Amino acid sequence: MLFEFLKYLQPTHYFGLPSAGHKMVYPDPGSLPKAILNQLERDLGFVDDRSVQYDLAWQAIHKGYIGNVNALSGIEKVSVQDEYRFIRKYFNRVWVAYVLLLRIFSFKNPIKELSAWMATRHVKRSAYLKQPLHYPDWEGVASKLLESNPMVSVIIPTLNRYDYLKDVLTDLEQQDYKNFEVIVVDQSEPYDVAFYKAFKLNLMVSYQKEKALWLARNTAIKQAQGDYLLFFDDDSRVGTDWIRMHLKCLDFFKAEVSSGVSISKVGAEVPAHYRFFKVSDQLDTGNALVKRKVFERVGLFDRQFERQRMGDGEFGLRVYLIGFLNVSNPYAKRLHLKVDRGGLRDMGSWDAFRTKAWFAPRPIPSVLYFFRRYFGKTRSCYALMRSVPFSIMPYRFKKNKPMLVLGALVSVFIFPLVVFQVCKSWYLSGKKLKAGPLIESL
Known about the structure:
By secondary structure, the protein is of the alpha/beta class. The protein folds into 3 domains: 6-130, no CATH class; 144-344, Spore Coat Polysaccharide Biosynthesis Protein SpsA, Chain A; 350-435, no CATH class. It contains 15 helices and 9 strands. The protein has helices at residues 6-9, 34-37, 49-62, 80-90, 93-105, 110-119, 144-148, 162-173, 213-223, 242-253, 292-298, 311-322, 365-387, 401-413, 415-435; strands at residues 152-158, 180-186, 203-207, 228-232, 236-238, 257-263, 278-279, 287-291, 326-336. Strands 1, 2, 3, 4, 5, 6, 7, 8 and 9 form a 9-stranded mixed beta sheet that branches. Strand 1 (152-158), helix 8 (162-173) and strand 2 form a beta-alpha-beta unit. Helix 4 packs across helix 6 (110-119) and helix 13 (365-387) runs antiparallel to helix 15 (415-435).
């Protein structure tokens, strides 16, 4: 990892693993264009010059650098003081204290840890996201891909959401890019075949008796006629330029995936780290355009995630590991309504770490299957320590910081129950690992 302490705070982050050819996503600052370097802050407060370079590389990627310069290689350990300086710059002070306690309880030299922690106590949190890198040519550039008018296949699995699917299909009727087909895999009961007759779309609808999200998406991929596959949810709304913005992004950056952004309330602001182009560290199959050749190289979605969580996250990591470029696209927006009935709501949990019953596994077993398969036992344990205590409170408090802290405190009092839940998830994820991935080829 770029800095060792990231293993505590981002143990299962895409960028913590090298992609194709054992390369890191982080650019070598010495290879960056001067125009990019001038927008980065060289922090001479680090003890080691290597830390200065690593920090510049971190800034470049997280401020939105997308390019083909040489990647950093031969990452070496830096001083403990520089590690603390780095996390103080980019993470909340609560997490800095968490790392300190974790290090001390892991039998690291407490004097050395406390000295480094104290030496960096005056470091201020960076506001680097307020000044992301810009791509001034975006607005005026003519897209040759758009001019070639390729076929796009819009893929929508649906389950008991006809009221919302009506708006979804209406939004697609109003797209200003016209060369697309819509493939709907309907799992609803009762199945209303007449519902689809009202729409003026190139529409292919198939009924799937089995309630299975990833089977539905895999089936639609096989049926798709387009070389560009656009994944959409049945409880979302988009603007008229949605398809066009996805295609333009692929062309502008010569990328294989365009990952759109989502908001859950009308008028809500897009989170700061999604307001600009950047190399994406996730893939959301409710709003992503993927070239067909990606599936031909990495396979379809893993059906080990049926009725559970993180199937798209796992696929996104496979895309990253093979070296394909996935761009976070702020211009391909959707409103994700997250309705409380139908879809995965009827088949599983609302959240990867929150359970529906006291003695249910925590997290959902597929989450640990994903973590353990790609990141190993140690990092999976770090991910559990970082996430489980804050998952005690219900989903509706997910963004309420005081309630999350209360949940962490409550977890101390119900510690035996939490241990049981985690052990159950670990056991069930182990069974998945033993069975292996269920990934078909295209």
